[in-house]
Amino acid sequence: MSLPRAILFNAVFYLTLFFYMLFGLPFLIAPRPALRAFVRTWGRLFILICRVFGGLKLELRGQENLPPGPVIIASKHQSAWETLAYLGLFPDACFVLKKELSHIPFFGWFILRMNHIPLDRERGPSVVTKLVADVKRELRRAEGRQVIFFPEGTRRAPGAPPDYRVGVALAYVGAKATVVPVAINAGLFWPRRSLRLKPGTIVVEFLEPIPPGMKRDAFFQLLQERIETASDRLYEEGLRELGEPVPPRAARPASGAEGVA
Fold it and tell me: Considering the entire predicted model, what is its pTM?
């Protein structure tokens, strides 16, 4: 992306986000369905801004693997793109996120009002009990929410060794919920800590759901295998689209499971 186009994209993105939150303040006291619809329109507008001003097309695969109603989404996390686009892709997205984000003016108010799940990592073992209880609560809402975990807890560069946290496995067992793994290649086109995008096709692939009932460790291993296998494939596919060489696959070290999320 050229510098002028990068400046234009960021100007449109941040100005739109600011005014959307500003004019959306009345929705904070509106009935929840109205707020949910308002937030979802922002997610869809964000996807449109990325396509028109950033050259980021979107391809969804495996949508038949996404069951209706309440479900846990366990997604690869590579960029800022999915944190906003998922608001438009899912009917009622509920993110498990760092508690610090809920302290941001405007942005944090919407997080709290939308009943996302802030995770206080300093609470020690008690955070697990609260996490499972919060996930159960949101899955049982009448609307049937999609609770979204980023199992590695933070953004990881495409092709980087995985580093999964155990929180999603604890929620899977505790909530007795179906989990849909999701692979993505957004980090190739919107790199971490970068304001310049690389025009191309972001692929979001919904993988075969994992039904409830598995033992925690078996589930945790299967989840990682499915996400990483598909993410490796999307990584190589994205590199070819960008015209960049595909590096040989090296043996990845075992992923860590320290921390909850």
Answer: 0.90
